[in-house]
Amino acid sequence: MLKNLFCICVVAMLVPQMASAAVVRFDVALDSSTNGTGSPGMGSATAFLNDLTGQFDVTGTFSGLNGNATNLHLHGLTATPGTGNAGVLVGGFTFDSGVQSGTFSQSTVIADPADVAGVIAGRSYLNLHSSTNTGGEIRGYLLNPTAVPEPATCGLLCLFAAGAAMQRRRR
Description:
- This protein is of the alpha+beta class.
- The chain contains three helices and ten strands.
- Strand 8 and strand 9 (138-141) form a beta hairpin.
- The chain is globular, with a radius of gyration of 21 Å.
C-alpha cells in the first residue's frame, strides 16, 4: 500500500513538470548539399529553442569555405520541412567574418509563436554566406528536435529511482 502511494505521488509530481518542459535541442550539420554550391565547406551547430518564451540560442563552427564568411542568418519558414528557401527569420549573428573557418553564436528571442512552431517543425535553416557564394555557401536545416529535460524533472526522476531502490532493498 505504501509503495503504491509513493508511486502515485511521484507520478503526480512528475506529470506537471513534463508538461511544462519547453526547451528543445537541434544538432545541425551545415554543408552545400541542399543549396547546390558545390562548396567543400562544412560546419556544425547546436541550437536550443524554448517553445514558450521563444528564447533561441545557437553556437557553432564552420571550415573549408571557398570564400570568406560575410553573413549568417536563420532563414524560415519554408513551405516544406527540410527543404526549400525562405527569407531571413533571425539575423545579427556574432560570427568570425572575413575568414574561411571560424565560429558563430546567437542569443535572441523569436517573438511570433507561429515562427517558433515552424522552427520546431523543421521549416528553418542556418545559412552561412561568403564572398564567393553571396546567396549562401553552406546551410543546415533545424530538424529532429529533442526535448531537454528541465532540472526539476531530472531531480524527480532521481528521487523516484532512489525510492524504488530503497523499496527493493527492504525486500
